[in-house]
Amino acid sequence: MELSLLPQELRDAYEAFQAALDACGDLDALMRLKGAYIGREGSHAARMMDLLKAAPKEQKRELGASINALKGKWEEGLRIRQAELEDARKRQASLAQAWDPELPPPTPAKGAMHPLNRLMDRMVEVFRPLGYHVEEGPEVETEAHNFDGLNIPADHPARGSADTFYLKEHGDLLLRTHTSPVQVRVMQRLAPTIEARGGIRFLAPGRVYRKDEIDPTHSPMFHQVEGLLVGKGIGMHHLKGTLDYAMKALFGPKAEVRFRPSYFPFTEPSCEVDVRCPLCGGDGCRVCKGSGWVELLGAGLVHPNVLRFSGIDPEVWSGFAFGIGVERTAMMVSQTPDLRLFFENDTRFLAAMGGLD
Amino acid sequence: MLIEIKALVQELPAVANLSVTELCELSAALGFPVDGVSQEGGETVIEVDVTANRGDVLSHRGFARDLAARVDGKLEPLACPTLEEGAPLMPIHLRAGAACPVYSTAVLDLGEGPGTPEEARRFLASMGTNAKGFAPVDGSNELLFRYGHPTHAFDADRLKGCLIVRWAEEGETLLTLDGVERKLSPKDLLIADDSGPVALAGVMGGDSTKVTPETRRVLLESAWFDARSVRATAHRHGLHSDASYRFGRGADPAMARTGRDLLARRLMDWGGAVLHGAWTAGEVPEASAAIRLTEGTLNRLTGSPISLEEAKPLLERLGFVVSQGADGLWAHPPTWRHDMEIEVDLAEEVLRMRGYDTIPMALPPLQGHPEPLSANYAQRKNLALRLAHLGFHQTVTLGFVSPEIDAEFMSVLGVDNPQGGRTLVNPLGVEYSVMRGSLLPSLRSTAEYNLRQGARELRLFEISPVYFSTPKGPQETLKLGIVWSGTLGGESYLSPARPVRSADLVGIARDLGLEVLPQVHELGDGVFGIEFPLGELGRPQDRIIPAFQAFSRFPAVERDLSLLVAMEQSYAALRDAMTQVLPKDTLQSLACVDVFRHKSLPQGRQAWLMRFRFQHMERTLTGAEVDGWIAKALEAARTHGAELRG
Known about the structure:
heterodimer, A: alpha+beta, 2 domains, seven-stranded mixed beta sheet, 13 helices, B: alpha+beta, Phenylalanyl-tRNA Synthetase, Chain B, domain 3, 5 domains, 29 strands, 25% strand, elongated
């Protein structure tokens, strides 16, 4: 930029501009600076215009370019500084008005799924990758589905009115005592197409009823998750492999599983499945009664009579079944001291246990 | 079942080498988990859980026999010389066929012996029984716990004529030892003499022939009774004794004579009794037929090769008589095993002896296509999760309620749902006797409980079946019940407090997509509830992603219209009337966004602020056309008596 045509006074003003701009601490100071440099009257810019008017003709072109360049620089500098100062003022203003973020904000209400439903859902998730789907059956059942079809003899004590709730006006109807009748219903339904399907595999979560007085470890209504798999060449090794996977999925990869012989009328061979006590790790505690193991479920290979009753040929097909006690598992894992808490539905308990994930 | 380690070692010395922990582990591995370990009079006693099919294990010797097979130890021989049998001193007639095929007995004169020895008293104490100091009772109990075979002693001088094992006749009665007069059924197996019933076979003796301190001569009974008959009789009379427990789970018919011998020997040794004669009616039934076991079955059950050569000695150690044929093993079960019927029963014994831990693990291959999870289950789970995110807690309550509460709600709901077919024959109590016709009573009591506990606001829901009486039985319908109560908001400077209103529940019902809104019931002071079948929510879509629906990218125009309407004006009628005159594809929404009721308004009128939202799919709307529509809407509103609020 050619400043030699300008008087010393204006050249000094040019040199001092940037420092004066930086020194403007607020918008008022900036406005004063603006007035001094590019204001309409008495400003450096106004004086330059007067100089230009008075300049000889041959100088006008060159002087005009210099003045415009100078004025453009000043305008640009003032604009940027003004934006900076306005920003700072806004920030300060908003800080002065802000609410203390510690003040309680409005929060959405929080609910929860029931812990028993949540655990059953989790079990379904565990078996889903193995190809199990969900089947359900009625809670009011027939003796045929609840007992006969499961190879439970007519004089079995469980069939008595001391253990099983029966309904008035309908002699053969009862409240199912386990989720196993769902096995019978589903096998009867799918038996005609079993060959085309290549087998049957499902979980049946649900409520069951037994005539137990309500106390810290008993309830006349509780939950089970039943599992059934029917295929060709199914054996105990498949049952063991499946439950070992499931228990590790539920209790962690280090969960240790033990299979013990047992007896159920609807499976042969039968077994009970223990998990190394998740609380003490096997050292012995109150939960495992010192044994280091907690009994979690009953299982076995489906009894040939059960397959036959449902119209499936036990010479061709075999399978396994298992039943998990939901309350028992939930109590054990959570150390809930009293079964009744699950049915009392105190929202403080539900909120702490149910969660949302 | 209680097992004293000392007595167990007397039957199977090999057990002495095991620690209590090792014994418990071994017992569990055989299928009999140990529920507890305690000390009784200086001896260790374990509580063994025996499965219902193994009556043969319910004694020290029976338990030892199963352990012996696994540890390959030898049982001590029974230390009891066989009594020589002679001619019956009293005729015994077996008239119940297979229900009682063998009946051994002996008659002894009681003497003045030293009484029950200290060792037997201590053992009985370990078993939780006090010695009576009377040989016929203590001896019978001791051998029951030790050998598992129930025996009975009659006062021989109070028996008349002959003994008959027969089915009861209609109208017969028996006063049993516990002092209860029992009305007998023809399905009850009994022991009778010439005067009538003297004992319920295998369950309990009769009072008239019981042994007392005055008894001088006893007749011992050691028989075998069919398990089903004993179970049925015990169940019918609610009479569960140690004898019925063991016979009911299957006793060993071969123990009939031995049991008699063991008891007689105790009377002679402990009580100084003198034997008059011993005899047996009937015969031990023939062993059950042989069952075949093939290698193919063993391999299929375990997924690993198990040879018949390996299986044979395992079965033999359990007492099976096994022969190997070309087609597999043929095994005759021992007399004490009543749980052997089919091939897999045998296979299970082989696996039990090898240990379930020897079975490998494998996941079964997927055969065919997996099925969809289940639309109903997925719907329920999503619904529960959604309501939980809306602040509701899911409850689980018992399926039965009291008849009064159920009736109250059926009347509130206006449902004709007779209770008869929904009522339990044997409820825990009348308050748990009716399968509920509605979820609302349970939700109400849960709400009341929580409000009493100090809850400020309460949102609950339950998804459970309710029951409707039909001639075929109760029909189950899955319903969703929701209850909302208390004070909303007021816990933050930005949300003012207000009581929950029934409209809040209507909002939830709408949000869930209900087309027909359910009636909101006020279940108590400020407690609101709704209930409807899940079926009304519509089935979840089969398609994973719904079909595309076009939306407008042009500016929307919002207009408010404040109308004065009658207090009794139907909102739906007014809204529908205005909607009808407006262009369907351009009107995005029309709703009342505020209701104003105040004394400054004309008498009988209220003000509704109606908000219109227009948006055209293809162009920007002009002010003039929107003005025209609002004018038409106002005109339509006027036909319902509405007027523009000035």
